[in-house]
């Protein structure tokens, strides 16, 4: 007779599997068939036994005796549940008796068994009801199968080059550590995420074989650092490694491990006939495990690793929640910046430019602000850099230019006897990525603002060495009648000789020059000498000079004596709304 088969319609159970009675083949009736069955039963390589409805073994074959290390006849008459160690397991024992009573048709479970010589093995046990009275019991040694499965898992979960756990196993262990940290141990967890500095150059110049040897050597040293504290080291891919502190005792332990890694990597590596020096950047995260997930920890570690590289490499950097919040805010702003221009979320403030000799209002500088729906009013330093990076500075700059000219024209019409120059900052990308000349011409034509009342400010580093399109744009704007000013002068090349060949009308001295004018009691003669020399040279070149960041009457007076033409700063006014400038003009 063939072995009974399971029913595809059975309800699965973690320990048992049920089949219907109709799935069990009938016992053969003829005596010859019965003899054939007994012969097959005895000689079968599968360990088997017949079990009565009382749970006692009626017969066992030689394969079962060999597996259990006892003659098969000695198993006859014994309780099958006791023989197979099922009696001590309430759940499995109940399922066993359910099969005996007919409430279930089949039991399948895997458990550890012990031979008579004391050796143990894992076995898969199956008990099946048949159409005749005896039940069929089979016992299969699955130790080799499980060992092979574990071997395959080890290969799948370890890096072939370094023999360290790979990313999949590391994330598995990290998730387990997070889950268990609150149940036992310190309740804290630590993570060091590191990346080798300049490893790509090794692969590119010496080849991947040498690169792999270097990775294996690095892994060996990392294992040494991890082993001392019982930590887990892993290779996450490429030249990225990680160390897990399962029960961290605090930030000091995590940063101490990172420092130990840096020290271990200081000694050069002898690989492939080459002596190679390598360093690493390390992001360190250490915190309470409660409320954290493996994904959050890895994200924090990745962010901190980026900081370590940005801070200069060959160092460790500890995760800083405030710094991360700033990064998250920056990312949120970057995602919505272009749409914010389209939604009209930007406004302009204006800061007066005052004649130092008369104290009269000569002009204003337009300064853009972002009225963010979530973060409130943001100053330019929070978003201008982002706008330059993603190119949204072009539409934003175009809007600032148009709104400034519209407002300046309104002032001119309201106060024709008091012409006011509006100064607008222009980014380099506006020159390269758009037709600035065409934009300015169209805006002036649309608003009716005379070109002489518009001044465009570019940074010194942006115009120095200009050639091609930027230089052509500057000359075209100058010929149009628009004034060109150099902003933050003194922070770049400071090449006045070159500037004489540019169509520049004004210089705005960087606020750092005015800083030395703050103390009237202890003036710095060198600061005054430098500023005076710059002003005299600028005047000889036909340029006017504006001093930025003037904060006191004493500074204003000293700058006036030196010869500065105009001043700008909190001494006169902070940046204000257009209505406040209108009030000044009407005063």
UniProtKB/TrEMBL annotation:
SUPFAM superfamilies: EAL domain-like, Nucleotide cyclase, PYP-like sensor domain (PAS domain). InterPro entries: Biofilm_reg_signaling (IPR052155), EAL_dom (IPR001633), EAL_sf (IPR035919), GGDEF_dom (IPR000160), Nucleotide_cyclase (IPR029787), PAS-like_dom_sf (IPR035965), Rev_trsase/Diguanyl_cyclase (IPR043128). This is EAL domain-containing protein. Pfam families: EAL (PF00563), GGDEF (PF00990). CDD domains: EAL, GGDEF. It comes from the Bacteria. Transmembrane segments: none annotated. Residues 187-321 form the GGDEF domain. Residues 330-587 form the EAL domain.
